[in-house]
Specification:
Elements: E1 2-5, E2 9-14, E3 17-22, H1 28-44, H2 53-64, H3 69-88, E4 116-125, E5 134-135, E6 140-146, E7 148-153, E8 158-162, E9 166-168, E10 175-179, E11 185-194, E12 201-202
Antiparallel strand pairs: 1-2, 2-3, 4-11, 5-12, 6-9, 6-11, 7-8, 7-10
Amino acid sequence: KSQMRLPWASFKRRNGAATICYNEDDTLLNSVMCVWTMGFTLLKYQAVHFLDDQCLMAIIVTFLGYERMRLVFIFLALWFPFGALALNGDKPKVIQLIKTTHSWDGKQIVYPPGQPEITGLLIEIAPGKETGWHLHPLPSFAFILEGTLEVMLKDGKIKRLQAGDPLVEVVNTPHNGRNVGTTPLKIMVFYAGAVGQKLTLEQPG
């Protein structure tokens, strides 16, 4: 035997049979409040451990009758997304990609003087192609969306990145980026510069 009491009504289950008792105020508001309270309580206190689907449906039908079932379903459809979110306490998932004070070659990051300006670019490089030698006179952050990137410095240092990898690019240091994969390389890059400042300067190979 299982029993549950609510502010608006109570219901019991014995040997698979459901019985419900409620007050005599048979108004639509009271019906809606009973359903809301019942649903809230079932979710929050996980009373579904002793209520299967057939028993729960029998309780709703017995309490409201078939004529009001349509109103109940409309009410539940409107309430459930917000109620479930509030009960579960769902929060946005946050993943820190990187946090550093240095670029990938070990040099400290220094922001340029002037009026700050943020620029975001989506760069796509075909398989086997490269950017050509260049440098960035300002800090920049890259994220590999697709493909494989190989970055080379003049001193021979090489850094290889795959899809999902972050990169704090070198500043005032010539480098060349190459797509060493077999699919298009897509990179999202954000530059932290100043108004009127160039993002990239070409360099001799």
